[in-house]
Amino acid sequence: MELWESFKEWFMNLGENYGVNPIIFGSLYVGTIPLFTIAIGWVIKNMRQKKPIFIPLMMSGIFFISAYLYLIVVGKNIPYWVYAFIALMIIVGLVGTIKKLRKAP
Question: Which pTM does this prediction carry?
Answer without folding.
Answer: 0.74
